[in-house]
């Protein structure tokens, strides 16, 4: 938590980042020198970069799954339309029965 105390009374998960940011800010001549420490602390608190990355990964997985589905449909349609023309599979024609002599 931002107070420095966790739920069970111990140190919070972001307390280390807060200490680094606070130390940098106290020793810095300009606040802009501590931007990376501030970003680390805010990321620890809010997980914005982590959530954005997870969203991008999920979106890409969905795009790839959609592409695979479209390719499968296209190949299935092409295969189904060509089979009867090539006489590879013809369900309507029965095999002739050999007569015993």
UniProtKB/TrEMBL annotation:
Major localisation: mitochondrion
InterPro entries, per the entry: NADH_UbQ_OxRdtase_FeS-su5
Cell compartments where the protein resides: Mitochondrion inner membrane; Mitochondrion intermembrane space
S-S bonds: 14-44, 24-34
Top-level lineage group: Eukaryota
GO cellular component terms, A-Z: mitochondrial inner membrane; mitochondrial intermembrane space
Family from the record: Belongs to the complex I NDUFS5 subunit family.
Entry protein name: NADH dehydrogenase [ubiquinone] iron-sulfur protein 5
Organism: Phycomyces blakesleeanus (strain ATCC 8743b / DSM 1359 / FGSC 10004 / NBRC 33097 / NRRL 1555)
């Amino acid at each position: 938590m931002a107070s420095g105390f966790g739920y069970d009374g111990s140190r919070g998960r972001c307390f280390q980042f807060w200490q680094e940011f606070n130390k940098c800010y106290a020793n810095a001549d300009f606040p802009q020198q501590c931007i990376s420490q501030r970003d680390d602390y805010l990321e620890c608190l809010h997980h914005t970069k982590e959530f954005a990355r997870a969203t991008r990964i999920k979106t890409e997985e969905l795009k790839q799954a959609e592409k695979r589905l479209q390719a499968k449909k296209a190949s299935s349609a092409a295969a189904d339309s060509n089979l009867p023309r090539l006489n590879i599979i013809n369900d309507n024609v029965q095999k002739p029965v050999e007569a015993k002599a």
